[in-house]
Known about the structure:
Elements: H1 14-31, E1 41-46, H2 54-67, E2 72-76, E3 87-90, H3 99-102, H4 104-112, E4 117-120, H5 124-134, E5 141-145, E6 157-163, E7 191-197, H6 208-217, E8 225-232, E9 236-237, E10 247-253, H7 258-270, E11 275-282, H8 291-304, E12 308-311, H9 313-319, E13 326-329, E14 332-336, H10 338-356
Parallel strand pairs: 1-5, 1-6, 2-4, 2-5, 6-7, 7-8, 10-11, 10-12, 12-13
Antiparallel strand pairs: 3-4, 8-14, 9-13
Helix pairs in contact: 4-9
Amino acid sequence: MSPPLVAPPPPASPWQRLYGGAHGLRRAWYRRRAERLPRPVISVGNLHWGGAGKTPLVAAVAAHLRDGGRRVCILSRGYGRQGSGVVVVSTGEGPLVGPLRAGDEPVLLAGELSGVAVVVGRRRAEAGRAALERLAEPPELFLLDDGFSHLALARDLDVLAFPAADPFAGGRLAPAGRLREPLAAAARADAAVLTGLDGEGSGETAGRGAALAAALAAHGFRGPGFASRLVAAPPRFAPGRPLPAGARVLLVAGIARPERFFATARRMAESGGGFAVAGELAFPDHHDFREASLEAIRRAAAEAGAEALLVTSKDRVKLHGRLDLGLAELPVAAQPEAAFWRWLDGRLAEVLAAAAGGRPEDGR
C-alpha cells in the first residue's frame, strides 16, 4: 500500500515567510505584464529544484498532441547551454545543434520527438515569436518546458509535476529547502501530476492523483490531480542495438536524483535484464562532463571491469562520441493515467475555442 500524501503546513520561519512574500510580489508584478503569444501555450513545470520527472512528462504531452494532429513547438530555456539568443534546436526532424548550444534536455526532446519543433531562448516569448517566423510550418500551439516559474510568458494551461519520491520537498523554500516557490503557488496550476510512480499496472497509480490534489487543497489548489508511471525500456546503444547478453556496465548519471536511475538499472539487471552492474558513478545535475570527468569515468570503468557505460538519455546526448567505451542508455517514458489525457483534451478544446473567439489581453 502506498503511503498517504500529506502536504506540510506553510513554514513558520520568518525567513521562509519573507521569501514566500517576495514570490508573491513577483507574481503580482507579472500578472498584467506577461507577454502573450498569438497561439495557445501549455506549460509543464514544477516547484522543485530538479528531479521532478518533468522532462519525460513534457515528452509524453508533446507526443500526445502531435499524435492528435497538432503542430507543436516546445519552448525551453536551454538550461546549461553556452551562448545566448534564440536557437532552433529542431524543426521536427531531429537535433540541428548539440547540447553546448541548446542544453541537454532540448537536444534530448528533439531526438525523441519526430514531428515536434524545439526552440530555446531565455525569453520564451521571443523564442515563440521566432518559431512562428522561422519554421516552415508555424506551430498551432506551444508547449512550455519548465515554465511554471517563467511568469514573463502568459499561458493558457499550467500542468504542475510533483515527484512521487519527494512530492512536497519538505515544504521549505531554498536555501533552507528544496522548493523554488511555496506550495501555495500550486493554486495557479490547472492540474497536478504525481510523477515517477513505479509499477507495471494501474494498482500503483489508483487514487494517487486524487490524493495529491487533496493534499494540495490545504494550500489553495483547486484543480484535478493525476498520477503518472515512469516505465523503463531495455538498455540500448545509440542506433537501437541491445546490450550484448551478460555485459558488465558502469552506471553513470549527472541528474538530480541519480539514486533513482541506479535503483531502476539494478532492479532490471537482477530481474533478468541480461546485463550486470559493475559499479556506479554520480555527477551533479546538468553536469557538463569536461575532460576531468571523462577521465574519472574511464578510470572507474577500468577498475570495475566494465565493458560499457549505461547512462540516462539526458546524459547520453552529452557523452556521445566523447569516450572510447560503449555507450548505452536506459530509456524511460512517462505514462500518465488515462484520466489525464481526457482532462487535457477537454481543456485544450476549450482553450482552442476561446482562441478562435478572441484571446484575452491580460496574463495569468
